[in-house]
Write a structure and sequence with these properties.
- With 237 residues, the chain is mainly α.
- It has a single domain (68-236), classed as Tetratricopeptide repeat domain (Serine Threonine Protein Phosphatase 5, Tetratricopeptide repeat).
- The chain has helices at residues 3-25, 31-59, 68-92, 104-124, 129-145, 150-161, 166-182, 187-199, 203-214, 220-228, 231-236.
- The longest helix is centred in the first third of the chain and has 29 residues, at 31-59.
- The termini are far apart.
């Protein structure tokens, strides 16, 4: 299978995960069937992403080789489509959430908007500045109605961090910090915070954050993201 085939499979699985969660939210899919199918799709997505990353060093010309930071940031945004939608569905289905006091209609609207934001963010990884701006604005729309929405804060922050712009990255870090404060049990935000601290050279703080993350039994894809940056290996030394 070529790299292009793998990328097509990755995109197909990301779309399938979004469709799967929409069907659950609409009541068209039984929760047990959704859980089984989603677990399979997430597993396959992780396998495809690993295959892509293993293949690229061997086929990419030297002038285009990306740093581990760039590759891992890109992988994180692609994983957004596989992770974020499931988190939104779980939260609006009655699990622990920072928006528990809102009405059902507002929850449904927020869920749909977050799904749209995740699609924009996944597209932004292909390098479109316009799409990146659209994704950030999409999360702004969620936060206008729900200023403490941990999902929107975390992923808005992560998108800004990946720009490489110092001012925007600082704003992104503040968003991620706010996401952790809004929902300390939200693993994605803690994973992003761990990486940001690690990249900033704040190793003691990064170790503390990593311990808090691991205590949450985070999704395997979040641990894969950390390993893409070499965080756990470096902090264990």
């Amino acid at each position: 299978m070529t790299e292009r085939d793998l990328e097509a499979e990755r995109d197909f699985l990301a779309r399938s995960l979004l469709d799967l969660d929409r069907e659950l939210a609409a009541g068209d899919l039984d929760p047990s069937d959704h859980a089984a199918l989603r677990a399979d799709y997430v597993r396959r997505t992780a396998e495809v992403l690993r295959a892509i990353e293993q293949r690229r060093p061997a086929v990419a010309p030297p002038s285009r080789v990306r740093s581990p930071w760039r590759r891992a940031v890109v992988a994180a945004v692609v994983l957004l489509a596989a992770i974020a939608s499931g988190v939104v569905v779980a939260r609006t289905a009655g699990t622990r959430t920072s928006t528990a006091g809102l009405t059902g209609d507002v929850r449904a609207s927020s869920r749909q908007q977050l799904l749209e934001c995740s699609e924009l963010a996944a597209t932004a990884v292909r390098g479109s500045a316009g799409t990146l701006l659209d994704a950030v604005r999409c999360y702004d729309g969620v936060l206008a109605a729900q200023p403490s929405n941990a999902e929107a804060l975390a992923y808005r922050g992560w998108l800004l961090v990946r720009t490489g712009d110092e001012r925007l990255a600082a704003e992104g870090r503040r968003n991620i910090e706010a996401a952790v404060a809004a929902d300390p049990g939200y693993a994605d935000a803690r994973a992003f915070r761990t990486i940001v601290l690690f990249r900033a050279g704040e190793l003691d703080a990064a170790r503390t954050e990593l311990a808090a993350l691991e205590a949450l039994d985070p999704p395997p894809l979040m641990l894969q993201l950390l390993d893409g940056f070499g965080v756990r290996e470096a902090l264990a030394g």
